[in-house]
Amino acid sequence: MSQYIAPIRDMQFVMRELAGLDAVAALPGCEEVSADLVDAILEEAGKFAGGVLAPLNWSGDQEGAKWNNGEVTTASGWKEAYNQFAESGWTALACDPQYGGQGLPKLISTAVMEMWKSANMAFSLCPMLTTGAIEALMLRGTDEQKDMYLPKMVSGEWTGTMNLTEPQAGSDLAAVRTRAEPVGDGTYRIFGQKIFITYGEHDLTDNIIHLVLARLPDAPEGVKGISLFVVPKFLLNADGTPGARNDVHCVSIEHKLGIHASPTAVLAFGDHGGAIGTLVGEPNRGLEYMFIMMNEARFAVGMEGLALSERAYQHALQYAKDRIQGTELGVRGGPKVNILHHPDVRRMLMSMRSQTEAMRALAYVVGAATDMAHLHPDDAVRARNQAFVDLMIPVVKGWCTENSVDIASTGVQVHGGMGFIEETGAAQHLRDARITPIYEGTTAIQANDLIGRKIAREGGATIKAVIAEMRAVLAEVGGVQDEAFAAIARSLDSGIKALEEGAEYIVATYGQDIKAAHVGSVPFLRLFGIVAGGWQMARAALIARQRLGEGGGDEVFYRSKIVSARFYADHVLPQAPGLAYTVVNGAAGALALSEEQF
Amino acid sequence: MSQYIAPIRDMQFVMRELAGLDAVAALPGCEEVSADLVDAILEEAGKFAGGVLAPLNWSGDQEGAKWNNGEVTTASGWKEAYNQFAESGWTALACDPQYGGQGLPKLISTAVMEMWKSANMAFSLCPMLTTGAIEALMLRGTDEQKDMYLPKMVSGEWTGTMNLTEPQAGSDLAAVRTRAEPVGDGTYRIFGQKIFITYGEHDLTDNIIHLVLARLPDAPEGVKGISLFVVPKFLLNADGTPGARNDVHCVSIEHKLGIHASPTAVLAFGDHGGAIGTLVGEPNRGLEYMFIMMNEARFAVGMEGLALSERAYQHALQYAKDRIQGTELGVRGGPKVNILHHPDVRRMLMSMRSQTEAMRALAYVVGAATDMAHLHPDDAVRARNQAFVDLMIPVVKGWCTENSVDIASTGVQVHGGMGFIEETGAAQHLRDARITPIYEGTTAIQANDLIGRKIAREGGATIKAVIAEMRAVLAEVGGVQDEAFAAIARSLDSGIKALEEGAEYIVATYGQDIKAAHVGSVPFLRLFGIVAGGWQMARAALIARQRLGEGGGDEVFYRSKIVSARFYADHVLPQAPGLAYTVVNGAAGALALSEEQF
């Protein structure tokens, strides 16, 4: 079983020096935010994550959630941990103060969220889904709905779920069939089956508030005929307490590769007369509402990629320090050493570490931009940041989650044979990570969004602006007389050129040959992530160099950061030109076979 | 649950047209081999693999092997399948006719082995380990040992195991501590604990023959003090039947990420007075014998990488054909289509397919070279082939197994959310594949072997010869006036240059800065595998083109082969230059941190 120690120093560095915590703190509504407050929050969250959640991660995986006759029992210790989580106010961190939230900026909740997900991803899904449901109600709920549900959801007394998927409607939500029939009193009876509902049933709280996509009678076909409903597990009494059991029942939970402790429910609505729900917002606009919230959810899943990578790195590093095997390379008859001495173990650990740092840097920068996009008084600044966030969300989601599978797999490899033994715990990270490139939109869905809505639709305007920012950083790096910085400049230069080549191809091809553009979409997303990560690591190296020159201390941290940036430049960024080649040239071979030739 | 249909057409193509089945059939001792015989074997093996072994793959995974008080029960159906396997003569395929084997060449047993491993990897490990033990006894056993054990091992009546690893001795076998004390009558008493013993205990046969590494009293420290012993589970009666229980007991079996149906035993030798064994070969040369056999074992694990990739591909392809989701890209309001229509699903499937074909081509070519190295009458031809085989074994092992993890993971991705559900079976391939880059020497161990013993030690002589062969193929491809061949030539050209650059760096650096060379070793192995796969796919494309020109039929197959080669050139080979960059430039960043900075 592995420990988790929140990487607070790196989080502070990224928040303060890369993501602009000061600028976020200067936003309207963020007056209370200060470096001290942030440090206090990180420290408390780190204690909770490492002390309460992390110890339940492996036992929760082994025990799993259990279904029995419609009821779901969470793993041992889960309920106590959840109660403590809610009582400590962690559910309310980023929520609106009007409903009991603390209203802290996204940048801070991002760092805290990373900790929950590193410590115990299966646990973290419960508050994450609740946040999604809270946002849906905040966005389009009536005042009555808000008053009924939000205070108890923000406090963690109740949890929330998102009910989108049906057996025939996964990536294609146009195929949703669940029906909603108006009762006549403002409520609706919901009939249908939803699958893959995270924490769709559990024993942590005495009510669960389901947000459900369904079709009204005579709704148009396809995506424009889907409405959003709120359907509580227990209908509310007049005093707001849970009353009669609603007709939504958990038929089964899934037997999954990972996140065993997170119950993934099949929910049957209306098998006994209809589940009572109320409409959220206007009819037939449910999918539109979902899309507005989707950025948040996709960002959060991207954070899972980062968080699992951090956890897998810590786990592998600890093993590498403890495991004695072989002697130092090139030393005959020397003493046995720990495997951290072996060059390939080093390479693996540096690969895990540098990519994790790059993902954190990029994700937090996007988190801070979200705050700017929401809160900055200047319209132009808000718009610019929103465009950046919109562009980067599919990259954060797709790149960080795909990376996490590779990084967790590398973590298994560092353990050698022990990595394959479940008790070691390294394999759990790989099993848990494997869902992240799938849910909240597969990597292909992210890549479609990236090249279509986020790039081609605006002729590549925002990505061109981002590339210009990258070039400015490159110019600065190129001006430093130092071997490491020269290496960073060399790889970043070819990386940026590759990204630009790929982006130009996407813009030019999307309207002409959409299938060809789509063949390149996932390689392009990966290319974008790699180069964006290199950009942020180059920024980090420049800042580290400046701090070292100032002589303000923390030398070990800043020197390590430059090493990490250099490793990334030598081992990760060099993949960029090959990916650009594939983006530009890969369509013909991918599309040539007829279905019969497969 | 997925079906497995042996890819007999591609196997035939690779054996006949790439690996030189005719030349193998012309070798002394292979007089009976003919294309018809091979076809008959492939067909029978394919029936057995698809009809008997494949249906047990998923149920075996779910049920697993069970330990109870020292006894291990295999999963339901296992024993019947094993009996049928042995009765059908499959255990004896490649064995020496002197002991009941069929003495078929490696090229044929390679194809058959691929089928067992695709159909049911956990099952296939039992005959695979037995083959290893048979080879150890063939190699250095006394006539008495051979007569006692080999006929029943070849017939499958008994199985064999290899006992190397101990808790403190994994990659570093110099640390083996198991002791062997001479009794005085020619036997030894063995004391110690061995871990990770595949099929170290089971209920399939009435004896198990353990090959065990142990130290004699006063043996030198380190690798030169390790001897090899044969230790049967049941001592033999005078008539050769199993008699008294020997003092080797299964203390537990591991709870693993994958290959659940393959019992991985902890074996205690000598807890009750000593396990009786006899010495194999000379004292203190056990590790040397192991290394001689290791090529075979490593090749076999490389085949697991290929085999699991094939299985994952078939599984994902079937799902993609069956799963209806969304409409054709660029067609508004069109009918729902299967996901094979979506460009990124195409890309994923082609990536799985083209890499699997490339691995098969390379592995079978190495298999045929093994036959040439063993059987060709001309010393120079034998030596040349042996050098090629020695060079390529770590590539086949390292590259195919690392690929299989990625490919099985891509298979999960093709399934979307269903891929994460265990009942789908796609996740099992990923879980099973994850052991392959670890056992029989991790990828780092393969890469060390590759750059040290196989390249630097001889100044790169063999790899230079291989690169020259690649260049000859490139020249031929470059001469074809065709868009697909032009694309293949372009990527193969830069791939070969990258490989040469990497090889020159290894040769130049290994003696000067061994740690730097080792940092690049795994990226170099991957680079070598990618380019060697591209080389074989280019050969395949040239042959396919020739056959199409001849008009002899089989057009769909040959046209698909050219598409596959082209896809590989556009999507896989472009990774080569980036890997070469990392090989050459990656050391400084990887080695810069002190242990305290981690």
UniProtKB/TrEMBL annotation, chains A, B:
<feature type="domain" description="Acyl-CoA oxidase/dehydrogenase middle">
    <location>
        <begin position="162"/>
        <end position="269"/>
    </location>
</feature>
<dbReference type="InterPro" id="IPR013786">
    <property type="entry name" value="AcylCoA_DH/ox_N"/>
</dbReference>
<dbReference type="Pfam" id="PF00441">
    <property type="entry name" value="Acyl-CoA_dh_1"/>
</dbReference>
<dbReference type="InterPro" id="IPR025878">
    <property type="entry name" value="Acyl-CoA_dh-like_C_dom"/>
</dbReference>
<dbReference type="InterPro" id="IPR037069">
    <property type="entry name" value="AcylCoA_DH/ox_N_sf"/>
</dbReference>
<dbReference type="InterPro" id="IPR009100">
    <property type="entry name" value="AcylCoA_DH/oxidase_NM_dom_sf"/>
</dbReference>
<feature type="domain" description="Acyl-CoA dehydrogenase/oxidase C-terminal">
    <location>
        <begin position="284"/>
        <end position="450"/>
    </location>
</feature>
<dbReference type="Pfam" id="PF02771">
    <property type="entry name" value="Acyl-CoA_dh_N"/>
</dbReference>
<dbReference type="GO" id="GO:0016627">
    <property type="term" value="F:oxidoreductase activity, acting on the CH-CH group of donors"/>
</dbReference>
<comment type="function">
    <text>Involved in the assimilation of dimethylsulphoniopropionate (DMSP), an important compound in the fixation of carbon in marine phytoplankton, by mediating the conversion of 3-(methylthio)propanoyl-CoA (MMPA-CoA) to 3-(methylthio)acryloyl-CoA (MTA-CoA).</text>
</comment>
<dbReference type="InterPro" id="IPR046373">
    <property type="entry name" value="Acyl-CoA_Oxase/DH_mid-dom_sf"/>
</dbReference>
<keyword id="KW-0285">Flavoprotein</keyword>
<dbReference type="InterPro" id="IPR052166">
    <property type="entry name" value="Diverse_Acyl-CoA_DH"/>
</dbReference>
<feature type="domain" description="Acyl-CoA dehydrogenase/oxidase N-terminal">
    <location>
        <begin position="75"/>
        <end position="157"/>
    </location>
</feature>
<dbReference type="InterPro" id="IPR036250">
    <property type="entry name" value="AcylCo_DH-like_C"/>
</dbReference>
<keyword id="KW-0560">Oxidoreductase</keyword>
<protein>
    <recommendedName>
        <fullName>3-methylmercaptopropionyl-CoA dehydrogenase</fullName>
        <ecNumber>1.3.99.41</ecNumber>
    </recommendedName>
</protein>
<dbReference type="Pfam" id="PF12806">
    <property type="entry name" value="Acyl-CoA_dh_C"/>
</dbReference>
<keyword id="KW-0274">FAD</keyword>
<dbReference type="InterPro" id="IPR009075">
    <property type="entry name" value="AcylCo_DH/oxidase_C"/>
</dbReference>
<feature type="domain" description="Acetyl-CoA dehydrogenase-like C-terminal">
    <location>
        <begin position="467"/>
        <end position="593"/>
    </location>
</feature>
<dbReference type="GO" id="GO:0050660">
    <property type="term" value="F:flavin adenine dinucleotide binding"/>
</dbReference>
<dbReference type="InterPro" id="IPR006091">
    <property type="entry name" value="Acyl-CoA_Oxase/DH_mid-dom"/>
</dbReference>
<dbReference type="Pfam" id="PF02770">
    <property type="entry name" value="Acyl-CoA_dh_M"/>
</dbReference>
<comment type="similarity">
    <text>Belongs to the acyl-CoA dehydrogenase family.</text>
</comment>
